[in-house]
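Q: I have three molecules that I believe assemble together. Could you output C-alpha cells for the complex as a whole instead of separate predictions?
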Amino acid sequence: MTLLRVAGMLGRGGSRAERARARLVAVGAALATWFLFGAANVLALHGQLDDRLGPIANRGTRPGTAFAFGLMILPIAAFLHQTGRLASADRERRLAALRLTGATPAQVRLLGALETTRSAALGTVCGAIAYVLLEWSIRGLLLHLPTTAAGVPPALGLAAMALVIAVAAVSGLLAGRHVVTSPLGVTRRATRRRPGRRVLLVPVLGCVPMVARFAGLPVPYRPYSLLLGAGLFAVGMMLSTSLLVWASARVAGRRARSAETLLAARALETDARPWGRTMSVLGLAVAIGSGTGWIEAGIMDDRHTLDPFWLTSFTLVDLALLVAMAVTAAALLVHQAEYLMEHGPVLATLRATGVADGELRRVLLRQGIIAAVLPCSVAALIGLLGLTDTGGLHNETWAWWPVTNAVLMAALGVLAATLTTKASQRRLQRAVSPGRLRTE
Amino acid sequence: MSIGHVLLGLLTERPKHGYELKREHDDRFPGVKPIAYGQVYATLQRLERDGKVAVSGTAKEGGPERVVYEITSVGTDEVRRWLAEIEPPAPYVSSALSTRVVLALIVGGTADGYLLRQRAAHLERMRELTARKNTAGISAGELLATDYALHHLDADLRWLETARQRIGELTKEIRP
Amino acid sequence: MTLLEARRIEKTFGRTHALRGVSVAIESGEVVAITGPSGSGKSTLLHCLSGIMCPEAGEVHYDGRRIDTLDEAARTRLRRDAFGIVFQFGRLVPELTAVENVALPLLFNGDGREKSATVARDWLERMDALDVADARPGELSGGQLQRVAMARALVTGPKVVFADEPTGALDSLAGEKVLGLLLEAARVNGSTVVLVTHDNQVAAHADREIVVRDGAAAGVVA
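A: Yes, here they are, computed for all three components at once.
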C-alpha cells in the first residue's frame, strides 16, 4: 500500500525530535503491554499462594488486583497521548509539504496516525517478548516452577496487545485533529478552546445518590446506585480537571504580580488541556493514595499490627501509585518539551532582551505549581471524603494517619509536577540559545 | 508621454488659460522639470490646429487678458486612448554607472573603491530625500515624486551590489 | 563620544566564519545602519554588539566598559537595563495581550501590575497602536506586531535600541511608518539606534552606514 510506503519513507526522514517521539511512544506502549500482561497473569493464577504475595495470593482479591494493574494504563495512556503530540509542529510542517504535493487532508491525518501506530506496535511487541522472557526466567530459574504452566494466556495476551495498538492509533488520529494542514502551511491548533463547562454536570450527577443518602432520602437499587454515583463522580472529576487547571490559571493570571507568574498562567490558560489530562491522572493517584490511608488506618486501629498479606498489599498499592505518578510526571515532561519547542524563538527573544535564565526557569516552575496545586488538593480531599466514618475507629488518633497521608500525597503530586520542570532545565537552555533567534 | 497629453489631461477638469496650465503642471508634477511658458503656448497652438482643443473665451484676472482653452471631444478621445496605453518599459542599459565600472576595471584593475564611493554618494542622496519626506507639511504629490526618486536610487544601489558580486566574471572577460 | 565599539571581533559557527575581524565604533545618540548582503554577518555583529553572543576574539566595549568578558548574568543585566531589542517578526509572547507584552520588561523589573500597564499603554499610544492594546499577537497585522514589539523594546527607556531587520516582513509603506515611529521615539528618548538591514531605503533613514561584507566592515561610510 502506497500510504504505508510513504509513512516508511517519512519515518526515516524525521527530525531528532520526531525520532525521540517515536522512541517515547514505543516505550509507553511497552509499559502498557507490561501492565496488561501483569493483569492477565494475575487472572490466570490458580489456587491459594503464599500470603507474602499479598493480594495475588488470595483467589478473592485477584480480580481487584488485575483491575488495579489495568488502571495503571491510565497514566500510560496520558503519557502516550502527550508523546503523540510531541514534535507535532515539526511533523505538521512536513505533512504540509505533502499537501502541496497533492495528498488529501484525510490521507495526511492518516499518515500521522500511522506513524504513531507503527511506533506503538513496535513497542508492544518488544514489551510482550520482554515480559514473557522475564516471566519464564523467573519461573524457571528463581522459583524452579515448570515453565510450561500458565503465564499469560495467549488469547488474553494478544487481546491486550491489540488494545494497546488500537489506543495508540486512536490517539494518533486525535492528535491530528488539532491541525489543519493546508498546502501553504500549518494553521496551529484549530481548537485551543477553553475546556467546556458542561462537563461539570457529570460529577454533580454522581453526587446525587450520596447526597440523597446523607439527607436521609430513599435511594433505590442500593448499593449499585451508590457505586454508579461514585464511579460517575470519579470519572467526572477526571474529565473536569482541565477546567480546574484552566480556572486556576485564569485566576493566577489576573492576580499575577510578577512577569513569571503572568507568563506561566497565560500559557496554561491558553493550553490547559494537556496539563488537565495529565493532572487528572495525577489527581486519581493522589485520591487513591489518600483513600488507602483510611483503609490502612482502619486495619491498624483494628489489629494494631500488619500481617504479611496487608503489608504486601499496601506496599504494592504505594508502589503502583509511585509508578503512576512517575509516568504522569514523564508525560508532563514531554508536554513541557513541546512547550519549549513551540515557544523557543519567543523565549530566546525574551532572553535576548534581558530576561535571566533563572526567571525563565521560574516560568516553567510556576506553570507546574499553578496547574498542580488545585487538582491535587481537590483530589486529596476527595480521597478523604470517600470514607467519612470516623466513628468506626476505636482510637481516634488514627484519623490523623489518612489526613497526613492525604497531605503527603497532595504534596507529592505537586512535587512531581514541579520536579518535571527542574528536569526541563537543560532543554530550556537549548531552546533559548541565541541560535534560535535566527529560525523562523 | 508628451506635453500635449499632459495639457489635454489638465484641461479635462475645466477650461484653462496657458499660464494656469503651466502653474498646474509645475505644482502637480514636482518630480519633473518645470515647463517653459513658450512650450505651453506652442503646444496649445498645435492642439488647436489638430482640433483637440478650442478657444472658449478670454479671462482677465488683474493681469493681461488671457486666452482660455477648452478640450474638444477629439481631445478627450485622444487623452483616453493615451491613458489606456502603457509606457514602454525601457531598460536603461549601459548607463553612466556601468560605463564607470567597466572603465574602472580597464584602467585600475579594480572597481571596489568606485563601487563603495558610488554607494556612499547614492545613500547620501537617499538620506537627503528621506529627510525631505519627513519634513512637516510636505504635499502628497511631492511625496510621490520623492518616492519615485528613492526607488530608482535604491534600484541603482542593488545593481551596484550585484555588480560587486559579478565583478570576478567581468574582470575575466575584460582581462582574459 | 563613542558609546559602543567592536574591535577586530571574530565569530565562527562550525565552519562558517561569520565575522572576521570587524571593527566598528558607534557614537552616542546617532542612528547607524549596518547593511550588507544576506549571510554577510550583520546579524551576528548585532548579536555581539548587544551582548547576546560573545565573540571568540576581539573586544566589545559599551560606555567605557568591556562587555564581552562579562558573564551571562552581567550581560543579561546590561541588556535589560541599557538595551532594547527588536527582531524581524516581533516575537511577542502569543498568549499575552499587546499591553501585557509591552509591560513584560517592567514586570520583570519588579514594577507593579497597574503601573506597568499604564506605562505600557502610554508607549502603545506613542507607537500608534493603542487601538490593539487588548488584542493578542495572533490577531495583529505585521505592522501592528512590529509597533507593539517596538513599544516593548522602548518601554524601559534604553540607551541603545538594536533593531534586526525591523521592517523585513512589512511592505515599504508600512515599514516606513513603523521605522519613522521608532526613530522619532528614539530621538525623543535620546537613544542610540543600531539598525541591521539589507534594505537601502531603511538604511537611508540612518545618519551613517556601516557596510558588512563577508564578515568584515567593507567601508564605514559617513
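A: One point stands out. Residues 308-352 of chain A form the longest helix (45 residues).
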